[in-house]
Amino acid sequence: MRSRRLTYRPIEAGDAGRVAALASDWDVARMTSRIPHPYSLLDADVWIASIATDEFVRGIEYDGNLIGAVGFVEDERRQAEMGYWIGKPWWGNGFRRVGNGTQWCEARKSEVETIRYTRRRPIRATWWRSTP
Length: 132
Description:
CATH topology: Aminopeptidase
CATH architecture: 3-Layer(aba) Sandwich
Helix content: 10-25%
Strand content: 25-35%
Number of strands: 6
Largest sheet: 4 strands, antiparallel
Number of domains: 1
């Protein structure tokens, strides 16, 4: 799957080092709900191995380099929690705010203000999961 500038692909065990290097940055971890801080290579290995079959997770690549991850997991109400993170060197290159909220942040161990995004059309989970 590709966008105009980015490629999205499954996360693989070999990505653990790159994931750990990018996600261990406090400024990245503090902006997510699930990345703890500090974040180690072992954390990345465990996370990649734990990605469930009902979870959609893709690595985000720019010019062939992994720069972050995006994913969603659907709950029993058929609503999805969607999230992403981008390595700090690539911040400020096209993401737009549409609203605010709060969310638990594992790195901060507290509720934090969040930036919300919405989509008018439902994402078809079968389409996302069928992409290589």
